[in-house]
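Human: Cast an eye over this sequence-structure pair and say how the chain folds.
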Amino acid sequence: MSVVSRTPSPQALSELDRRRVALWAAECAERALPLFEHEAPDDPRPREAITRARAFGHGELSAAGEIRRRFVAGRAAASASTPAGVAAARSAAQAAGVAHMGAHALGAAAYAVAAVRASHRQDAGAVDHEITVQLDLLSPDAASALRRLPLLGSDPAGPLGAGLLASGFLGSTIREIQARLLG
């Protein structure tokens, strides 16, 4: 019987770093949350996911427990009727996913920016403003952890691989966030 030793993906981050970036991801998702709650005020799943992401960040919840619950908020996207509401629910789901893999923090930020973009189509500066505010919310430790993540598309094993987060508006948003973090 052979035992395969697996090196964790660089997208995972240490548990301490995941806790640090979970707090930031929760802040990003919460900024977009009203866009979901306006459409689906009786669906608590995104708010609960953000609360859990914060609790994980504060060390009050285990990574294992959150890994099992990380998809719940994503299913709430079906309760939304607009692209802004869907993106806000997905932002919360990505924040909850940070317990599993730190790279989901960038997904939470990107989906929150997508929600803002969808709800402010006439405001050309809304996207840039949201990214700036998100980066201003970063603690130095969380920023340092995010800088350790591989650049979008450079590591196939995780959310920053060739999947949904790497393409279209989400991909360009994550690239912009990473560029500003490294710049």
Notes: The first helix runs from residue 15 to 39. Residues 1-5 have pLDDT under 50 and may be disordered.
